[in-house]
């Protein structure tokens, strides 16, 4: 059995397209944890995931999945990985019974009982064609198939996008259940930061092909804050303390990356807690420094 | 690989059933026509009997073409549907390498070709008995040659994977095929002109069409003989070419 500390290890991953470059992306997903991979549309999340799964050939860098090299030991790794995409990748003419027959020949550890168990739990019909499923049903089906072959790593690419809050909540609960087993890990890319607020242990934020922050979610949330001040007071804030600032006619809201230090430095200033969404918003605008 | 082959057949079952229904319907109709020449309303009509006598040697070719092309084509849409459904993307996340994926696609096509050939032979048997002529081994040999020609269409698989849309694949093959096709048509026209001239010289006492047939028969027989010897090589060659090009195409990762 392969021993490993991190379910995913990415080091200096590079991929070049015309007009976009994934530039030395590096981060790790510790075993037994769930990492939220956030960024706005076009930031490079899907490209990173595609490179992880060797769907696209990387131009540089190293990737390890469950301790295996993602290229040289690709198929060994993929026996224990399940990928979930934003759209159902199974033909509309198939039904669950046919899908079971297909996937049980592909995955050595496929369990028909587990698969049908999840279908019953999600109240998904076995004989109905997938073309007649709703979006929520399709996502639950994908997750059922992902969880039915003893996968140790789930890689989800925008899997909760477009789902209603009830279904999203249901799916997040399933992920938490999945992580009860310490051997299991999840990498979940999303721009719905509220989902990651709920379940992520760690977060990596990517923007324009570069990783801006990567670390434990609680540490990131604890260290960042939104300093609120007047326009005059804003001028007194040192540039190195500012990630970016949102200016309005009434004052300024400044994202700071070291809340504790800024509290001491700018005593009297009000520093509110920042959510992941706030952090994403301010970091995306960091090049402008000041924005409205 | 079993799962992938099962999937291909599951998705094409409607096309398969439709092709089978059309084939059986056509076979039934032609058989009835032959039967009626001795047991029906065409029995006393001498002109019709002559027409059918000339049609019988070709009938098995029509049913054979229908079976071979029809069943082989049943799978064509699956490749394109796979891109639309994102199945192709999903297969890159599975513990299945490109060689297995290519093999599964080829195995499906081979099975369809064999099934098409078997139905073509069934057609020959049914028509042979309907026309009271029995089964002709010569006809079966010709059907085997036809199967070899149909197997050449396997090489469209890598193009289908590359282009992802039917229209683009067809356009590519028209572009590549237009010159060889023009050369073939030119060759056939030249051959027909040669046969006409030879027929006037060698068989001036025979009617035009009959004389031309007499001139062309030895060449046709020779061509079929050569094709029958070449058939296994054509089939194997098409399969091998298709396999390696398909693996290469899948490895290109068109995402």
UniProtKB/TrEMBL annotation, chain A:
Keywords tagged on the record: ATP-binding, Nucleotide-binding, Transport
PANTHER family documented for this protein: ABC TRANSPORTER ATP-BINDING COMPONENT (PTHR42939:SF3), ABC TRANSPORTER ATP-BINDING PROTEIN ALBC-RELATED (PTHR42939)
Matches recorded under CDD domains: ABC_DR_subfamily_A (cd03230)
UniProt xrefs under SUPFAM superfamilies: P-loop containing nucleoside triphosphate hydrolases (SSF52540)
InterPro entries the record matches: AAA+_ATPase, ABC_transporter-like_ATP-bd, ABC_transporter-like_CS, ABC_Transporter_VariousFunc, P-loop_NTPase
Source organism phylogeny: Bacteria, Bacillati, Bacillota, Clostridia, Eubacteriales
Organism: Ruminococcus flavefaciens
Pfam family, one: ABC_tran
Keyword Metal-binding: no
Domain of life according to the entry: Bacteria
Protein name in the entry: ABC-2 type transport system ATP-binding protein
ABC transporter domain span: 8-233
GO MF term set: ATP binding; ATP hydrolysis activity
From TrEMBL, chain B:
The name this protein goes by in its record: ABC-2 family transporter protein
Organism ancestry: Bacteria, Bacillati, Bacillota, Clostridia, Eubacteriales
Record keywords: Membrane, Transmembrane, Transmembrane helix
Transmembrane regions: 16-39, 59-80, 110-131, 143-161, 173-194, 223-244
């Amino acid at each position: 059995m392969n021993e490993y500390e991190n379910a995913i290890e990415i080091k200096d991953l590079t991929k070049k397209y015309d007009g976009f470059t994934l530039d030395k992306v590096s981060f790790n997903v510790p075993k037994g944890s769930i990492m939220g991979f956030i960024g706005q549309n076009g930031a490079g999340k899907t490209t990173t995931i595609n490179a992880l799964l060797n769907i696209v050939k990387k131009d540089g860098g190293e990737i390890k999945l469950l301790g295996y090299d993602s290229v040289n030991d690709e198929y060994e790794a993929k026996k224990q990985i399940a990928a979930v995409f934003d759209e159902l990748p199974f033909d509309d003419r198939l039904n669950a019974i046919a899908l079971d027959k297909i996937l049980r020949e592909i995955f050595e550890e496929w369990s028909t009982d587990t698969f049908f168990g999840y279908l019953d739990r999600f109240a998904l019909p076995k004989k109905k064609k997938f073309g007649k499923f709703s979006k929520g049903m399709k996502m639950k089906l994908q997750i059922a198939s992902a969880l039915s072959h003893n996968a140790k790593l789930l890689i989800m690419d925008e899997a909760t996008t477009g789902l209603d809050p009830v279904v999203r909540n249901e799916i997040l609960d399933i992920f938490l259940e999945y992580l009860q087993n310490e051997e299991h890990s999840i990498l979940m890319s999303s721009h719905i930061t509220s989902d990651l607020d709920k379940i992520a242990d760690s977060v990596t934020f990517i923007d324009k092909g570069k990783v801006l922050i990567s670390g434990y979610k609680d540490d990131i949330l604890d260290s960042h804050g939104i300093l609120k001040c007047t326009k005059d007071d804003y001028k007194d804030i040192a540039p190195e303390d500012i990630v970016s600032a949102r200016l309005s006619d009434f004052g300024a809201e400044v994202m700071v990356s070291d809340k504790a230090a800024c509290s001491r430095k700018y005593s009297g200033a009000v520093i509110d807690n920042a959510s992941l969404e706030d952090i994403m918003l301010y970091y995306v605008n960091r090049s402008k420094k000041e924005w409205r | 690989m079993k799962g992938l082959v099962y999937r291909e057949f599951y998705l094409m079952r409607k096309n398969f059933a439709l092709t089978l229904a059309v084939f059986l319907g056509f076979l039934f109709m032609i058989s009835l026509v032959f039967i009626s020449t001795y047991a029906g309303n065409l029995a006393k009509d001498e002109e019709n009997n002559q027409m059918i006598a000339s049609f019988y040697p070709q009938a098995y070719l029509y049913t054979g073409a229908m079976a071979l092309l029809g069943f082989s084509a049943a799978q064509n849409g699956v490749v394109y549907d796979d891109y639309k459904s994102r199945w192709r993307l999903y297969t890159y996340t599975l513990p299945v390498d490109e060689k297995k994926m290519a093999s599964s696609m080829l195995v499906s096509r081979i099975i369809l070709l064999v099934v098409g050939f078997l139905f073509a032979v069934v057609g020959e048997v049914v028509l042979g008995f309907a026309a009271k002529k029995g089964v002709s081994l010569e006809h079966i040999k010709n059907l085997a040659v036809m199967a070899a020609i149909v197997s050449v269409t396997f090489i469209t698989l890598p193009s289908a994977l590359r282009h992802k849309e039917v229209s683009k694949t067809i356009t590519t093959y028209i572009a590549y095929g237009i010159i060889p096709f023009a050369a073939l048509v030119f060759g056939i026209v030249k051959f027909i002109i040669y046969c006409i001239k030879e027929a006037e010289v060698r068989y001036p006492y025979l009617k035009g069409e009959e004389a031309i047939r007499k001139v062309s028969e030895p060449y046709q027989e020779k061509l079929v003989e050569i094709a029958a010897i070449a058939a296994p090589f054509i089939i194997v060659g098409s399969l091998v070419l298709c396999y390696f090009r398909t693996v290469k195409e899948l490895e290109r990762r068109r995402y």
